[in-house]
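User: Now give one protein:

AI:
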Amino acid sequence: MRKSLVCPKCQGQRFFEIDKMLVPNYEFANSFEPFTLTAAYTETGQVTKGFFGGAEMARIGAEASAFVCAGCGYTEVHARGLDVLEELASKGEGGVRVVDARVPSQGPNR
């Protein structure tokens, strides 16, 4: 839909583009954070300072943008930062796995 500029559901040609989807941040009042398709806490490679030390952790997530048909509301959600999804898949985190149709053993019904 984003490329063809035609809605596959109603053939509409007027759209809303949401460059960066946001959701309320429940830790801080009156603020927002990026909507992510998935997220995980993962090691940054740094060591925390303090009494116990240990690996520093950070939240990473694949942010999303959207394209919405103004006629019927049909919505396409697009991932931003495919490198984050690749990292999560390689670590087995965030519920992400790679499905490669070119490899028969990796199909959706493996």
